[in-house]
Amino acid sequence: MHVRKLTSGLAAVLAVTFSLLGGQAVAAPAPVADHVAAARVVTYDASGSAEFRTAVDRGAAIWNESVAAVELRPVASGQRANIRVLADNGWPRAQTTSLGNGTVYIGRQAVDQGYNTIRISAHELGHILGLPDRKPGPCSSLMSGSSAGTACTNPYPNAAEKAEVEGNFGGELAPTAGAVPLGVTIVG
User: Which residue in the list 51, 65, 71, 124 is annotated as catalytic?
Assistant: First the structure.
C-alpha cells in the first residue's frame, strides 16, 4: 500500500515536470484503491435459542462491530447454518467442528446464577471464531468468561482477542498461539 502511494505520487511529479519542460502533459493516474478482502460470512441459526434470541443476535452484532475479517449473519430460510445456537438447562458451552462452525449452547444454569446473557453469547461465539477460554481473567477479557464474576457485563472482545480472530480468518494481523482445538466442547 505504501509503495502504491509513492508510485502514484511519482507519476504526478513526472506529469508536472514534462509540462514545465514543454513536453506533452498527461493526467496522472488516479491512485488505486487499496484492496480490501471481503469478510468471510459465517451464518448462525438462533431459532433454537428460545428466550436468548435477542442476546444471540446482539452477541453476533458485537463481533461484527469488532472485527472485519469475518461477519456473522443470521442464516437464510431453507439454508444450513455454520453455527447452531441452542438453549438448554446446562452450563454455556461451544462445540467446534472447524473454524467458524459448530454448536453454541446458551445454558440457563449460568443465567440463573446471574451471568449476563449478551456476554455469554459473545463469549461462546468467540469459541466458534477460534478463541480459547482465558481463565482466570479480568472483565476486560471477553474470553475470561465466568471467572470475571457475575458483576461483569462486558460483552466486547479486547484488542488481543479481536486481533486473534482477524488472524484466524485471514485478516491483516497474524493469529496468536492458543487457538481453540477443533472438534472439542468448550464449557464456558
Answer: 124
**Residue 64 confidence (pLDDT) above 60:** yes
Q: Tell me which residue of 79, 4, 89, 91 sits closest to 44, measured CA to CA.
A: 79
Q: Report the alpha-carbon distance of residue 163 to residue 110 in Å, rounded.
A: 28
Nearest one of 38, 188, 166 to 102, comparing CA atoms:
188
Radius of gyration of the chain (CA): 23
60 burial level (CB within 10 Å; 0-12, 13-18, 19+): buried
pLDDT given for residue 185 in this prediction: 60
What the block records as the C-alpha cell of 39 is 469478510
Look up residue 141 and give its three cell numbers.
477479557
Give pairs for 11-15: CB < 8 Å, separation 24+. none
d(CA 178, CA 134): 9
Q: 83-88 and 185-187 as β-strands: parallel, antiparallel, unpaired?
A: unpaired
CA angle 138, 142, 145 (to 5 degrees): 75
Rounded CA gap, 98 and 109, in Å? 26
Task: Tell me, yes or no, if 164 is annotated catalytic.
Answer: no
